[in-house]
Write a structure and sequence with these properties.
By secondary structure, the chain is an alpha+beta fold. 21% of the residues lie in helices and 36% in strands.
């Protein structure tokens, strides 16, 4: 669409504020580090999970209906040499929780990691509580860390007889450095003769560019793309036993990643995201808004005194329909994102209207991009 036509419509609409939730990737693609778009296969974190008890709560713990909390208390006390009757235990100051943590790659014994504590009973608040020693296990059942310490909820909850107030989620807390690594994951990383680089967003063009950039940086063919998502690397003899230096050099290499022309639509939030490669063929767009307003005011008719009549309530209904003005905007072949946004702003569309327009353009075969609805 020509700029004069766009200005004409903008002038007709007046000062149009961009109220739509539209995110644009209009800036030219720039080179980024390989470190930011790919990772080495096998270098990843591992999830740990454990079951524990949080004590010291101010009456905001699990109620007596949480039988597993009572059983855990009895079992813990018996291990400490104290015999108790389960029927006599009150757990309002104790809460059963699940503890989760991520074991970073190459974590060594004695390292401190964060852990997340989440209530699984009917506890109201974990604020001020302390997590008792809890083993954290991996999927194979082995214990890799032990967690214990004060729980930081980052929120609060308080209530009175007729009102309550809360901030964030007080039933979920965090242990800052509260888990200690007890077992390492044995990985002979420095003794490898080959490495595999995995792209976060698989793309054939990006994989080819990464391969060329690595080969050019090392001045030899050590990289080859297996597919759109992986690049195979052969460790040169000069870096045998010193792979860390080789990986550091590869991570600093800059490449320009490619991306598929795509329009992402979230109908729940009214968000539309368009990539810079999105193009639209010649098409005319007309969109009108239909607004229906219904107002109902109750009118009460009281009977005369001593008339034995009944009170009647009637509704005074007012219906207002505003169809709006549908305008026609023409987009020429190869229109860019800027042209599309200016034209749609000239129509004064809302986020919901924008979603409907893009779906119609795709159905018409004029949208040269993938339309993805999430």
């Amino acid at each position: 669409m020509k700029m004069k036509t766009i200005r004409k419509f903008i002038g007709f609409q007046g000062a149009v504020s961009v109220c739509m939730a539209l995110v644009l990737w209009a800036a030219p693609s720039e080179a980024v580090r390989i470190k930011d778009i790919a990772s080495f296969k096998g270098v990843r974190s591992n999830q740990l999970v454990g079951y524990g008890l949080v004590v010291g709560l101010n009456g905001t713990g699990d109620g007596n209906k949480s039988s597993f909390t009572i059983q855990s208390m009895v079992s813990m006390m018996e291990k400490m040499g104290v015999t108790v009757n389960a029927n006599e235990i009150k757990v309002k100051n104790v809460a059963a929780v699940m503890v989760t943590a991520d074991l970073p790659p190459f974590a060594t014994t004695g390292s401190q990691i964060d852990a997340l504590v989440s209530s699984i009973g009917d506890a109201q608040n974990l604020q001020g509580g302390t997590l008792l020693l809890t083993p954290l296990k991996a999927i194979n059942g082995d214990v890799y860390a032990m967690a214990q310490g004060p729980v930081n909820t980052g929120g609060f909850s308080a209530e009175g007889a007729g009102a309550s107030v809360s901030k964030n989620f007080p039933t979920v807390g965090r242990l800052i450095g509260g888990a200690t690594v007890e077992k390492e994951i044995n990985v002979d990383f420095n003794g490898r003769t080959s490495l595999t680089l995995s792209l976060q967003s698989p793309d054939f063009t990006t994989a080819a560019r990464v391969t060329d950039a690595i080969n050019a940086s090392f001045d030899e063919s050590i990289a080859s793309a297996n597919d759109a998502g992986t690049v195979q690397l052969i460790v040169p003899p000069a870096y045998s036993g010193n792979i860390v230096k080789m990986v550091a050099m590869i991570e600093k290499i800059e490449v320009t990643p490619d991306q598929t022309a795509r329009v992402i639509i979230n109908e729940r939030t009214g968000t539309v995201v368009m990539g810079e490669n999105v193009r639209i063929s010649t098409i005319a767009i007309a969109h009108g808004n239909l607004s229906v307003v219904i107002k109902e005011n109750p009118v009460v008719f009281q009977p005369e005194p001593f008339s034995k009549g009944e009170t009647v309530v009637a509704l005074d209904t007012h219906l207002d329909v505003d169809e709006g003005q549908a305008q026609l905007v023409t987009l020429q072949t190869g229109a860019s994102i800027g042209d599309v946004v200016k034209a749609l702003n000239a129509l004064g569309v809302s986020p919901r209207d924008l979603i409907a327009i893009f779906q119609a353009i795709k159905s018409a075969g004029a949208l040269q991009a993938d339309l993805e609805v999430i």
